[in-house]
Amino acid sequence: MLRVGRIPYINCYPVYGAIDRGIVPLDATLVDGVPTVLNDAMARGDLDLSVVSAVEYARDAQRYLLLPELAITCDGPVQSVMLFSRRPASELGGARVLVSRSSMTSVALLELLFTNVWRAQPHYVPGNAELVDLARFPDEPHEARLVIGDAALHLHDAAEQGGAWGATYPYRYDLGAEWKAWTGLPFVFAVWVAQRRAPLRESMGAHASLLASRDWGLAHLPALAAQAAEATGVPAARCLNYLSGLDYRLSYPHLAGLTEFFRRLVAVGRVPDGTLAFLPAA
Prior knowledge:
With 282 residues, this protein is an alpha/beta fold. It is built from eleven helices and ten strands. The strands form two sheets. A five-stranded mixed β-sheet has the order 2-1-3-10-4. A five-stranded mixed β-sheet has the order 7-6-8-5-9. 47% of the residues are buried.
């Protein structure tokens, strides 16, 4: 039986919601993990198919096949990948910026934005980007920090409402919006990939199930938003706004954004040059 990876963040609810409810069958074992855990599991061959950071695909494209028409993307603000800063990003040269250990793509995008948009070179320090308890955040000296996932929703709202978090970090940057303003393109944060060595028929069947589950999820976003609110404590209306702002396709514009991102990473030596290869459609 295939082993299929799943990120537990609420942004994956639209893809797995119908599978979790038994509405769409998936002949596979689901394995949960944050992006870097799933990236590592795919790199070791411990999973057959998974959602992974876009950078993980580019890092070893010869190992993987992209699943067509399935990704986590935005065309503007993403809301769940945020840089919180004590001062303007353009003034962070040499400053300590805490970055997530859990998302290769978010960190790579942040580095590109600092180099090309904000024209500053900070000192990147691995930190915990998923905590939502403000009292636990001042764990080491820093001027800014990258926060991702469900925590970013909590903390963005806390900053907007004022209080300690907003006072501590008066400058806030949505990385999806920053990429859109810079390139005019959508941004692809995560893709679904299969191991090239995985059984083709089974991989195609899992792909078809994921697409069917995604289509159900997009038609039932209010129910998924209510589930997300219960899991995170973020109000259901806010969860619905967030999920509605994401796109789970991999269309031509999304591929243009993805290849532009990869082109820039190749230019700075972050990933090897390569080509996109896709699993055959069912």
